[in-house]
Amino acid sequence: MSEPLVIIGNGMAAARLCEELAQRALGRYAIAVIGEEPQLAYNRILLSSVLAGDVPASETLLKPATWWRERGVTLSYGAAATAVDLSSRKVTLADGKALSFAKLVFATGSRAIRLPIAGAELPGVRTFRDLADVASIANAASRGTRVVVVGGGLLGIEAAYGLAKAGAKVTLVHLMDRLMERQLDARAGSMLKRAVEAKGIEVLLETATSRFVGDGRIEAVEFKDGRVIATEMAVVAVGIKPNAEVAAASGLAVNRGIIVDDQLSTNESSVFAIGECAEHRGVCYGLVEPANEQANVLASRLAGRDVHYAGSVNATNLKVSGVHVFSAGDFLGAAGTESIVFCDRGLGTYKKLVVAAGRMVGAVLYGDTADAIWYLELIRTGVEIESKREDMIFGRALAERLAA
Ligand SMILES: Cc1cc2nc3c(=O)[nH]c(=O)nc-3n(C[C@H](O)[C@H](O)[C@H](O)COP(=O)(O)OP(=O)(O)OC[C@H]3O[C@@H](n4cnc5c(N)ncnc54)[C@H](O)[C@@H]3O)c2cc1C
After folding, report:
1. Strands, E assignment, 248-320
2. What is the pTM of this model?
3. Which residues are bridge partners to 212 per DSSP?
């Protein structure tokens, strides 16, 4: 008899887990997936491209309905899991249904953080996390609409770009002194700012938002320095919070995310967590590659293999047409590291490779990102780089030819 395996969350991590389980342990589990969003799992990464009008929403679907059916996965979407009873091993859904499990996986992702300031709930103040958000932002934005995007990280920049491309007049507001400070150093950040401005987006750095103002809907954004910008819409992209409340209420250990060990198991050995809702060795990842790596490890474990998850390297690409930005690992360079730097402002190219003890540990690339995958591979594998160190800043082709 197949063991009942329930997955809460029908996002990217859940889809990858089902795909891997179908290959490694077909028939061993009767899988049921519970999704709050009212559609099949889709590629969330593509939402920026959907907003920019480069990809139709229909192309974001990860797997067609037949794929799930053929693999015997029972899908229940449009109703959230509201409670988990660990002693009776039951999940309760918002529509009143209940599912029994022998093993349970939380893959509930994160939600966008709302700013805790006055006016945050006004109509016209939106977040950027799911297909419904993209549809409502796109509906409201047209040529000449004034929009303030709060948050100059990856999502805020991509939202600002998509809106500007649709003809909106966009102001991008960021609290810090450079864009994408969690992925870029000061030099790459300043080159990025110029490129974003060249797309017609006004960028305000070191600007703290104090409140959204409006009578019945947003009319302006007020900043701590007293400035006020009139606007018809605000998009808030200031960070994410793991969806861990249901897990916490069931008695599982939760810090920022649901705490898991190297087996991706929570403090209850038959309950697991993967993707953005999981906290592993104190880290909650906000990217898809770690979610995929965790799904692969968990599928192997559920198939009976003794594998472990040791953490992931963070790596990011910005999806703004004509602006090539890549960052991975220790991009700032902690004490004890050295940096190899190449910069040609005229060409709009900047590369910084961070090395420690003869190995690559981080990189920032701006302009020329052709070798990003190679650098990432060197960081992930931790191979010794001394033989190519002299030339690696000039790219793989030259470095490998000269090292041979
Ligand atoms: C606009 C945008 C652009 C991005 N670009 C990139 C990028 O370029 N590169 C990158 O690596 N990452 C990117 N990301 C992040 C990436 O999408 C996430 O890291 C990835 O989706 C995480 O997968 P997940 O399965 O953990 O969470 P999700 O994909 O968010 O899936 C979680 C699902 O669980 C559901 N859920 C939550 N609670 C419940 C409940 N109680 N019951 C049932 N269902 C529930 C949610 O509704 C959601 O559908 C981007 C994200 C956004 C929003």
Report:
1. 258-260, 271-273, 278-280, 315-317
2. 0.95
3. 221
Structure tokens at 171: 């102001």
Distances (CA, A) of 44 to 62, 91, 285, 348, 394: 9, 25, 15, 30, 34
* Ligand 1 pocket residue status of 107, Cβ below 6 Å: yes
129 lines ligand 1 (CB under 6 A): yes
Taking only the tens place, the pLDDT of each residue in 203-253 is 999 999 999 999 999 999 999 999 999 999 999 999 999 999 999 999 999
Atom in ligand 1 nearest the alpha carbon of residue 315: 11
The residue type at 286: G
Q: Angle at the Cα of 219 (from 52 to 139), degrees rounded to 5?
A: 30
* Unique residue bearing structure tokens 């960070």: 239
Give the closest residue (by CA) to ligand 1 atom 51: 45
- Report the distance separating Cα 327 and Cα 81, nearest Å: 36
Q: Cβ(58)–Cβ(42) under 8 Å?
A: no
The pLDDT value given to residue 315: 96
List, for residues 79-122, the tens digit of each pLDDT value. Answer: 999 999 999 999 999 999 999 999 999 999 999 999 999 999 99
Strand, helix or coil for residue 294? helix
**What length is written for the chain?**
404
Is 351 close to ligand 1, i.e. is its CB under 6 Å away? no
Quick check: CB of 16 below 6 Å from ligand 1?
no
- Is residue 203 within 8 A of residue 196, CB to CB? The reply is yes
